[in-house]
Amino acid sequence: MTPRTAKAAGRKPPRAEQRCIVSTCGATYGLRERIYVCPRCGGPLEIDCRLRRPSNPAVLRKRWAARATSKLPRDASGVWRYIEVLPFDESAPFVTLSEGRTPVFHAPRSAKYCGLKDLRMKHQGHNPTGSFKDTGMSAAMTQAVIVGARTAVCASTGNTAASLAAYAAHAGLQSAILLPRGQVSAAKLAQSLDYGALVLEIDGNFDDCMRLIQELSDDPAIYVANSINPFRIEGQKTVAYELMEQCSWQVPDHVVVPGGNMGNSSALGKGFQEMLELGLIKRLPKLNVIQAEGAAPLAKLFTGLEPPQLKGSTPLPDTMTPVENPRTLATAIKIGAPVSWKKALRAVVRSGGKIIAVSEQEIADAKAMIGRDGIGCEPASATTVAGIKKLAAAGHIRKNEDVVAVLTGHVLKDPDYVSNYHRGTLSLDSGPIAGAFRNAPERVAASKAAILECLARRQ
Ligand code: F0G
Q1: Among 9, 152, 264, 440, which has the minimal tally of Cβ within 10 Å of its Cβ?
Q2: Where are the beta strands (DSSP E) in 259-346?
């Protein structure tokens, strides 16, 4: 980075560092240290980018806007376009597949379904591997190359795995992924196989896989690519910057995301907080996180918070009771012990948002409703619309407020779920899920008359 760029970016030397987020610890470490939790207290780490408020934030905005039309491969990435706020130099060995730059759609039918005047959706399923994981993976694999890693590993419910497999392959690194056997959609698993990852199927659930990753993380042969890796969060936070650009820097009232391992909510929270500190925005949007009822440890903890904790005048809890046997058909978020819960909780409370849970029925119908807007997504993503409907009914979101739902995965990530919903065969052990917006295929005679009759009947 030239001194001129650094000045405009508001960054002052020394460069970024890794920092423990536990307020009683706050230990700092160099960027090259391959650590995933604080070696001193075991707390979560984040990157302090040492950003300094620029005298004129418009300079940064203009530069980012100009890069959107640039032909340089690095600028084609929705991550590296924001290099000024990332802990990387211009000379970094960028591992990119043109991630980010995802669209924002208006979704009028979903808005009406939720009782709102308008609703926008930022669709992260438009990323190279079809999920929001790619922005973070671009940053994590770039860091893996910088520190000379040879093998990158992750635990996954499917999307992190597909993303890691693709980005590691692109960087020429070996990748190994730990999946809960029989609990990952066939489409996601197929992606990882195709990208050449070593796929290790574990008898257990995602939380068991994550525990193994934490055990493996001190082995020097292994580079952990889960969202406990703070470089993943750096890549993912750019989604908040990109969203604000797409909103012409007008802050939405609410941003709503699904909650699983809580990396996404942590990353968006960090992005918005940084923009506030940089003077790029004047207030934070309320960050609302939605979990599936059968896998909602953080929603439960949030319900029990005392008013002074919500106001930030007394500390947030130190422990969270995990869900031992998480259950949901939204397999992407079938997680009982989210590793990044502390960062996510801090971000939600700071913004004045909420963490709630929605039922399987609510998720399934919300997903079909998003489909009726011509916008497909995977089940976990649909928790957003189910959650917005619930939050609107409870008065937390008002009819005329500006709301953005972040859709996290592509509809083709889990075609079995979609097909079962529409054919009326979707069920969890608690019973069948009756689709309010079912659209089963019809068997029709091979004749013009039969087809016209069918069209008239279904109008
Ligand atoms: N939506 C989708 C489609 C996901 O794949 C995930 C997480 C989430 C939402 C939740 O995001 O974990 O950052 O809170 N998938 C991870 C995986 C766990 O392994 O693919 P989160």
Answers
A1: 440
A2: 286-292
Q: Which pLDDT band holds residue 14 (cuts at 50, 70, 90)? A: low
Report the pLDDT value the prediction gives residue 94, as an integer from 0 to 100.
97
Q: How confident is the model at residue 454 (pLDDT cuts 50, 70, 90)?
A: very high
199: phi then psi, degrees, rounded to nearest 5: -95, 115
- At 13 the pLDDT is 47
> Which amino acid, one-letter code, is at 279?
G
**pLDDT for residue 159 is more than 70:** yes
pLDDT at residue 11, rounded to an integer? 45
189-196: which pairs have CB atoms within 8 A and are 24 or more residues apart? Answer: 189/158, 189/161, 191/129, 191/130, 191/161, 191/162, 191/165, 191/166, 192/158, 192/161, 192/162, 192/165, 194/165, 195/162, 195/165, 195/166, 195/168, 195/169, 196/165, 196/169
DSSP class of residue 413 equals G
Mutate to test the pocket of ligand 1, among 137, 159, 210, 410 (most ligand atoms within 8 A of CB): 159
pLDDT for the residue numbered 8: 46
For residue 420, pLDDT beyond 70 = yes
The mean per-residue pLDDT over the stretch 7-22 comes to 71
Q: Which of 336, 181, 354 is nearest to 253 (CA)?
A: 354
Pocket of ligand 1 (CB under 6 A): 131, 156-160, 227, 258-265, 332-333, 378, 380-381, 408-409
CA-335 nearest atom, ligand 1:
18
Q: CB-based contacts of 24: which residues, under 8 Å, 6+ apart?
A: 41
What pLDDT sits at residue 143?
98
Ligand 1 nearest-atom number relative to CA 262: 14
Selection from 200, 339, 147, 314 nearest residue 260 by Cα? 339
Question: pLDDT, tens digit, for every residue of 403-415?
Answer: 999 999 999 999 9
Alpha-carbon distance of 454 to 459, in angstroms, equals 9
Distance 296 CA to ligand 1 centre (A): 14
Mutation pick for ligand 1 pocket among 137, 157, 383 (CB with most ligand atoms within 8 Å): 157
State the Cα–Cα distance between residues 249 and 226, nearest whole angstrom: 30
| Strands (DSSP E) found in 265-328 | 286-292
Q: Which atom of ligand 1 is nearest to the CA of 267?
A: 13
Ligand 1 pocket test: pick from 126, 137, 156, 160 the residue with the most ligand atoms within 8 Å of its Cβ: 160
Cα separation, 346 vs 3, in Å, equals: 34
**Residue 140: which of 61, 216, 59, 230 has the closest Cα?**
230
